[in-house]
Give the backbone structure.
Amino acid sequence: MNYKKLITSALLAMVLQASAQEPVYVGGDISLLPKYEEQGATYFDKDGKSIKDVLVFLKEQGWNTIRVRLFVNPSGADKAVCQDLAYVKKLGKRIKDAGLNFMLDFHYSDTWADPGQQITPQLFMTVNTPVFEYIYDYTKESLEALVAAGATPDLIQTGNEISFGMLWDSCKIGPKSENDWSDYSNEGWDNFAKALKNASRACREICPQAKIIIHTEQCANNPTLDVAFFNRVKSYEIDYDIIGVSYYPYFKGELSNLDKGLTQLETNFPEKQIQLVETGYPSKWAVHGTSFDYTKTYPYSSEGQRNYTADLITVLKKHQQVNGLNWWYAEANAKGCTGSFATGWYNAGLFDNETGRALPALYELKNFVGGGSGLSRISINRQFPDDWYTIDGLRTLSGPSKSGIYIHHGQKVALRKML
């Protein structure tokens, strides 16, 4: 049976490289959802219809991934730092039962871990084992407990925003000096690499199907440092699958900064997938500490937030290695709350704090998987790389049987039967 490829300029615009067995992840971090529910928060869709189960609703809107942070022994100093293992087991099982991917975010701390602080948890300091070795035991035991609870993670972050290391000071790699946060120091890399290797080893042993993410946050503002970081990771032969990045425009500047940073990562690490594991933009007023005013392009309004989301997706879809997008603190919603979350201080979530209604940006996120651009990303099975697939991603056992658009060798092609 003979076929001829009909290649036109319109078809060329549709060509994309399909990632073998790499689904596209879209969703958000909803680590505080149970607390909001306990305090009586009421969630509604955009039309004011009551949402009975937020996770079910999010899945209906095209989300397929939920991210949850895990602290060792939450300090209680911050009401949002409450996600201990018991908490995450329960929420993780709920996520899995809803048919969603579960992204686990190890903070390896009793409180927030980010570029400015990576405080070693008290537990790690009470054992007679170096922290870069004990991280293996802690990671393994945590994952074993999650698996036993029916909450097996699909993606695992071994650290949160670790551009300057973690488990300070044992595994600290920066900043270069007290006044220079533009670069890391050479000290600490050996211990840091050991910690990451041990964390990865535990992940592979307990959750062999899970994808391991190493998460930094310098992509948009200092991509050269990000490239140097992952080159070091490569030189130490640290095992991981995905480069995770953060991007908040009110801190990191224009979307073009992210675009350039992603290009550098793709150019230097063509073998790795990349995910934007944290992003957000306000719907009413500036986030505290905002250092970049983007309101001329995206006003602080529900429509401004939606437009930011749409343009972010356009940028991400330019990059074939980017296969994940997660909105941070998506569940924020003070409507109906009677407890500590009733203030509604954070307005960069995806529900209106005053009405409880889902904001337009929430519905926009599904377009990362397909939607707006008219493109979709098709998974091709590694076992059958030369086979033909329908536009829906189904393998055709005997090849194309009629004219149409198919996926072959990772590209969309149009075929017509030659008589």
Remarks:
- The first strand starts at residue 3 and ends at 5.
- The mean pLDDT is 88.
